[in-house]
């Protein structure tokens, strides 16, 4: 949280709403461990990382929805045998769960 907190405080001081995405669990190989965070401001600025880039566009999109409607989301990313690498997932073969919430403090 320390890596994204200065940006969150700056955005909040400018009156922007903010969503915070947190890796809450992982299985297998994954680029980031539980606790990794990505913050998204109402104006579209980002800080931090939850995946090293492979699923972050989908997490950012979910964060924008959460900012707008206030409803938290639990996201899951991974590759199954039925899926292929072109779909959103982790190329490294693991699975992560990312919780996205709006910060209303």
UniProtKB/TrEMBL annotation:
UniProt cross-references to Pfam families, sorted A to Z: XdhC_CoxI (PF02625)
Boundaries of every XdhC- CoxI domain copy: 11-78
Designated name of the protein: XdhC- CoxI domain-containing protein
Taxonomic source organism: Reticulibacter mediterranei
């Amino acid at each position: 949280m320390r890596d994204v907190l200065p940006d969150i405080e700056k955005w909040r001081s400018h009156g922007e709403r903010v969503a915070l995405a947190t890796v809450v669990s992982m299985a297998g190989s994954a680029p980031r461990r539980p606790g990794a965070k990505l913050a998204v401001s109402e104006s579209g600025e980002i800080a931090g990382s939850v995946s090293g880039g492979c699923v972050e566009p989908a997490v950012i999109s979910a964060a924008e929805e959460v900012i707008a409607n206030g409803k938290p989301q639990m996201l899951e990313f991974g590759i199954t045998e039925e899926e292929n690498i072109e779909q959103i997932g982790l190329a490294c073969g693991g699975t992560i769960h990312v919780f996205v919430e709006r910060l209303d403090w």
